Amino acid sequence: MGVIKMSLKTKFTIDPDITKAETMPAEFYRSSEVFEQLKSKLFAKCWHFAGDSDIVKIPGSVYPFTLLEGYLNEPLLLTRDREDKVHCLSNVCTHRGNILVEGADVVQNMRCRYHGRRFELDGCFRSMPECEDALNFPRKEDNLSKVPFEFWHKFIFTSIDPVKPHSGFFKPITERLEGVKLGEMTHEPTRSRDYLVKCNWALYVENYLEGFHIPYVHSSLNDVIDYGAYTDELYEFATLQLGIAKPGEECFTLSEVSPDYGTEVAAYYWWVFPNMMFNYYPWGLSINIVRPIAKDMTKVSFITYVSDSSKLDNGAGSGLDRVEREDEAIVEMVQRGMQSSFYSRGRYSPKREKGVHHFHRLLTHFLNNE
Question: What is the mean pLDDT of the chain?
């Protein structure tokens, strides 16, 4: 049948020359072992969206969350202490491992409801009942572990063990958006929602990373953007797909300092490795977070921030739910195809799939510990 069986001890390789390269083997998407390896080899080493600054707006705020719930399942905690400083901490009590904070609140300090151990809002151990006779106590290990985090505009990102500083992932976006006139963005929960997609998380990302399918899958989007002018730009841990508006369609107002001044930009589609999308439209921003659940199940969260509601239903940024459902349908079919005995690897379109090739190269870099 021409089936290639790949040992997981064999390195995944993608030729750096896209004109020669073959795509990621089907085994990558089928393998439970690879899915588990990616937790420590990839996702623990990259940055993840935690929320925006409003969730810990005032001193005394505590906000528990789970990093990549359903996959990494790391219990974390954002706090703002009485000196107005924000912290990201482990949300696991250092006594017996109980979850420390169970819901968002405003508090003086944090007390574990299992045995009463208390912590300051910066994570430092404060007190513990019935431990007067304990030797060498408290130790530094009795403090809550501090977790790396960064602010980017109003958004908060965190990582368990980042391979590079946050700026190494987000600097290209910051530089490119200079001169893009964006108003104050407000979270709009009524336009935010989660989707469960029956596919491997990487298939969903690959679909996002190429505009190749737009004329075939997204007729409504193809009506408002100029497919012939659609471009891809690659950065170390990010890509930009630049959507150009057809004449008369909604586009950004750009200042002269923008690299795109004079161009009718309908959308900036930014992807940040491995699983975040930041889609800027004239009306605001749609953040898409791709969360692995199982090797064949993914949760995609659309988080909407609006700056100009009058433009919401126009241009490339309108009808996002329809576009998402169209994407779901196609990637779920690809997931089925990956189970075939007759499929192993494909070839890239050098013109249209540079982003997918870049993604696959990064995946193999992390999987092979390079």
Answer: 95
The CA-atom distances, in angstroms, between 344 and each of 66, 72, 356 are 35, 29, 17
CA dist 199 and 230 (Å) reads 26
Quick one: what percent of the chain has pLDDT higher than 90?
A: 94
- Taking the C-alpha atoms of residue 135 and residue 143, their distance in angstroms, rounded to an integer, is 16
Is residue 370's pLDDT more than 90? no
How confident is the model over 246-267, as pLDDT tens digits?
999 999 999 999 999 999 999 9
Cβ burial of 313 (10 Å; 0-12, 13-18, 19+) is: exposed
**Type and span of the H or E element at 365:** helix 354-367
Closest residue by Cα to residue 224 from 329, 306, 323, 304: 323
Residue 320 and residue 300 in contact, taking contact as beta carbons nearer than 8 Å: no
- CA-closest candidate to residue 267, choices 284, 255, 290: 284
Question: Which tens digits make up the pLDDT trace of 5-37?
Answer: 444 556 899 999 999 999 999 999 999 999 999
Contacts of 91 (CB under 8 A, 6+ apart): 64, 75, 76, 77, 99, 100, 101, 144
310, 317, 333, 336: which is closest to 278 by C-alpha? 317
Res 10: pLDDT: 61
